[in-house]
Design brief:
single chain; 8 strands; 45% helix; 16% strand; alpha/beta
């Protein structure tokens, strides 16, 4: 049985339910440039590759739209002010994090959200349970490139062989493969189990505390 000493989590759709706040900021940005709003389910399919890609998918024409930069700036300003309005940990996540910490495991977060927002949400929502919290920033390629995940492993003092990545999307699966790290997919996030299986997922948990079973083999 493989033994892990480090568990690293994706943020949106894995630890935190963020969809309503993301949708509100997308629609604020679309309002600013006079384009039709997007539904919650539409935004669900747009997330996973960072906020620039999110707005590229939400705005007709993407970055070719002459209003793209204006819309993207409006999104970022609104989301910075409202990223915690309805955002909350999924049920069971806090119990899981506390139990993992009590067992002496090293915990981290790696996200395509901006580094500032990742650190702020870690501080506000998790009160120091996650010792490393890394997001998108200059000089670090976003997921599915392995840079951020490998940096978190190093910061936590572990190795890829002793680390496990937990995420909710095909992006997280590819990130783990690219980093040479085992992955577990959650089914409560932004992608269905069917979508995850089609993307190559093999190991699933359907509630947070099921991760303890995975760790026990």
């Amino acid at each position: 049985m493989k033994t892990y000493d480090t568990i690293i989590f994706d943020l949106d759709g894995t630890l935190l339910y963020t969809l309503e706040d993301l949708t509100a900021s997308v629609n604020h940005a679309l309002d600013q440039v006079s384009f039709p709003r997007r539904t919650l389910d539409e935004v669900r399919t747009f997330v996973g590759n960072g906020v620039r890609v999110l707005m590229r998918r939400a705005l007709p024409g993407g970055e070719e739209n002459p209003k793209f930069e204006e819309a993207f700036a409006a999104f970022r300003e609104h989301y910075a002010a409202h990223c915690r309005d309805r955002t909350r940990p999924y049920p069971g996540i806090m119990d899981l994090a506390r139990e993992l910490k009590a067992r002496g495991l090293r915990l981290g977060i790696v996200s395509n959200k901006s580094d500032r927002e990742v650190k702020e949400l870690n501080r506000a929502c998790f009160s120091g349970l996650f010792s490393a919290a890394l997001g998108e920033r200059e000089g670090v390629r976003r997921k599915p490139e392995p840079d951020g995940l490998l940096e978190a492993v190093k910061e936590l003092g572990s190795t890829p062989e002793r680390s496990l990545y937990v995420g909710d999307s095909e992006v997280d699966l590819r990130t783990a493969v690219n980093a040479g790290i085992d992955c577990v997919s959650v089914t409560w996030g932004f992608r269905s189990e069917t979508q995850l299986r089609e993307a190559g997922a093999k190991r699933f948990i359907r509630s947070p505390m099921e991760l303890l079973t995975v760790l026990q083999g």
